[in-house]
Amino acid sequence: MEAIVDLAAIATNTKIVRSRTAGAVMAVVKADAFGHGGVPVARAALDGGATWLGVAWPGEAVALRAAGITAPILAWLFPPATELSSAVAAGVDLAASTGEQLAAIAAASGDRPARVHLKVDTGMARSGAASDDWPALVAAARRYERAGRTEVTAVWSHLADTDDPALVAAQTALLAEAMDVATAAGLRPRWRHLANSAAALHHPGTHLDLVRVGIALYGCEPDPPRPVGLRPAMTLRAPVVAVKRVPAGTGVSYRHQYVTSTDTRLALVPVGYADGIPRVAAGSAQVWTGTERRPVAGVISMDQLVVDIGPDGPEPEEIVLFGPGDDGEPTVAEWAEWADTIPHELLCRVGARVERRHVG
Ligand SMILES: *Cc1c(COP(=O)(O)O)cnc(C)c1O
User: β-strands 251-252, 258-259: how paired?
Assistant: First the structure.
């Protein structure tokens, strides 16, 4: 039960993004680098040319600092009353969408002003200041700046739908307007950022000074019909516990949702939904036996699943659930289709008891 993480692929994917963007690249390594291991992935992405790191929670940023990473890091999400002074003292940039968040950041500043990325909502209706509240947020930031409490290093926003070019254009225009408001108020942010992976690779008009790239680093093409040569970084594999011969007509796993159509052999694999294998994918999911793809037979349990490996041929010693696809194994993007979700979710749900092994 291991997830092999190809750090060379992370570095190469970062280079591919860099080569397609004019500005800087922020490697988004939140949620333990989408389950790949935060510190090694951050280092690989920095080797590949990223100059920023992005995480959701301030604690994630502090953990990267504690590992010796000195690159700029942005943390963008924290509830009221979060202890922010350790992040500020560690030189972590923090995002503010509201006056309360800005005040909390200013209150955490020490000798140096706290570094702030002011966020404006340009159409996501998630975080970010509404247009009506933006001038007041900007004015407050300017007051804290004059008092030496904060320094606004960036103005930014987040895209709601990169498949909708009109919405992308509208959000880009609203960010430019918000930037004008900030400049008119006397702020001089060095960075403007908006793009995620899909926009970084396919909407050059959104690049501005910095792109925030997650899924592309991990090797999933944001727009599969327009591939740019990304290489999936994680291979998830598990040994076979036992193989059992069964007759045609055998009902397999809970409620016998799979019934063998021929005499066959069933391989027992010790990973299940506790390890992030999506239960809902049973019925569509396939795995790689080393020589061919075979179906997952029946309901995926918490700790185990069964593979129908067919009546003859060599008994596999291990099963590959997903990988880069070189040999014919499924990719995590295929699993995402089988589970009716996105690869982001499946990658970051690979469970804690699956050992991560970093190579390359
Ligand atoms: C997760 C996240 C990203 C990365 O998105 P991808 O689609 O994985 O590139 C970028 N920006 C923010 C604010 C995020 O939360």
Answer: antiparallel
Side-chain-side CA neighbours of residue 199 (13 Å): 26
The answer to whether the CB of 123 is under 6 A from ligand 1 is no
C-alpha–C-alpha distance, residues 218 and 164, integer Å? 24
Contact assessment for residue 4 and residue 360, using Cβ atoms and an 8 Å cutoff = no
Q: Dihedral (C-alpha) 54, 60, 64, 66: value to the nearest 10 degrees?
A: 150
**Residue nearest (by alpha carbon) to ligand 1 atom 1:** 214
The first and second tokens of residue 296, run together, are: 């997952």
Question: Ligand 1: does its nearest atom lie under 6 Å from the Cβ of 215?
Answer: yes
- What are 76's two structure tokens? 């963008």
The domains of the chain, with CATH numbers, are 7-218 (3.20.20.10), 234-359 (2.40.37.10)
Secondary structure of residue 236 in the 3-state scheme: strand
| The pTM of the whole model exceeds 0.90 | yes
Any ligand 1 atom below 6 A from CB of 273: no
| Residue pLDDT, tens place only, 222-240 | 999 999 999 999 999 999 9
State the chain's mean pLDDT as an integer.
98
Percentage of residues in the chain having pLDDT higher than 70: 100
Rounded to the nearest whole angstrom, what is the distance from the C-alpha of residue 277 to the centroid of ligand 1? Answer: 23
| Centre of ligand 1 from the C-alpha of residue 71, in Å | 18
Are the CB atoms for 108 and 84 separated by under 8 Å? Answer: yes
The 10s digit of each residue's pLDDT in 199-222 is 999 999 999 999 999 999 999 999
CA of 306 to the centre of ligand 1 (A): 34
Q: Which residues are catalytic?
A: 30, 254
**In sequence order, what are the residues at sequence separation of 6 or more whose Cβ sits closer than 8 angstroms to the Cβ of residue 251?**
258, 259, 298
Q: Is 196 in the pocket of ligand 1 (CB under 6 A)?
A: yes
